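User: Please fill in residues for this 255-position structure.
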């Protein structure tokens, strides 16, 4: 298995190489690249590898610029210290999205996922490009959470995801608020919810909030490139999208 790693942090690169080769003795790391410019030059002059590990934030910009310049035919496992780029990642060749610092067990699951997908298809099946199949499967087989069973008093009620306006984390507890204004405590963290919710419908705007696109009544520019949202139902606190997440948020709203 020929692998390319795109990573601009030397220590992280060294750690990734050691973990990959320890987990798979057939892995051959054929190139390590540290910038958008270097990556574009490499892909313009070399055959596609079997798999790419790609850091999202590089010294000269976001790695998505690579896809805008050259054709990438290989499946990609993205690595990043930030969680707000998942939607963009899954619009391209992503089969997984790992948060830094990458854990060995998470990396193993990603490699196993790649191998399991690849093993389902023989090379050249009906002339179909294997990597297109991998991309298609990784998107189409994902089943997002459709509802929650919420406890209220001594009873439980069913709450459909499309009826949820937003999720808020307060004092290490997580609440969901419905469009009718009702609020319920749930036994999930926002990190859990990010993995379970449909990213076309929900977006994590901050460490404390995940919102439904249909809850957004208006968006206003705010200090230092951040955004201020007016939601329905109205939130008790100001709802701010940080400057760091603003570009991804606007792209999500424009999907």
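Assistant: Residues filled in for all 255 positions:
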């Amino acid at each position: 298995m020929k692998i390319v790693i795109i990573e601009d942090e030397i220590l992280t690169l060294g750690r990734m190489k050691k973990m990959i080769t320890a987990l798979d003795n057939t892995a051959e790391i054929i190139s390590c690249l540290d910038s958008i410019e270097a990556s574009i030059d490499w892909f313009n002059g070399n055959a596609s590898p079997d798999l790419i590990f790609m850091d999202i934030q590089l010294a000269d910009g976001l790695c998505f610029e690579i896809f805008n310049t050259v054709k990438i035919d290989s499946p990609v496992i993205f690595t990043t210290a930030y969680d707000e780029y998942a939607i963009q990642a899954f619009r391209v060749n992503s089969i997984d999205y790992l948060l830094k610092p990458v854990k060995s067990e998470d990396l193993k699951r990603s490699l196993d996922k790649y191998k399991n997908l690849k093993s389902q298809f023989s090379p050249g099946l009906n002339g179909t490009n294997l990597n297109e199949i991998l991309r298609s499967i990784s998107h189409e087989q994902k089943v997002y959470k459709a509802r929650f069973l919420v406890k209220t008093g001594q009873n439980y009620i069913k709450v459909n995801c499309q009826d949820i306006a937003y999720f808020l984390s307060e004092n290490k507890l997580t609440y969901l608020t419905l469009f009718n204004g009702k609020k319920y405590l749930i036994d999930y963290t926002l990190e859990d919810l990010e993995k379970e919710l449909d990213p076309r419908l929900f977006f994590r705007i901050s460490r404390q909030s995940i919102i439904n696109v249909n809850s957004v009544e208006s968006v206003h520019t705010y200090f230092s490139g951040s955004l201020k949202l007016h939601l329905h139902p109205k939130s008790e606190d100001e709802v701010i999208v940080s400057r760091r997440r603003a570009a991804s948020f606007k792209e999500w709203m424009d999907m």
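For context: The radius of gyration is 20 Å.
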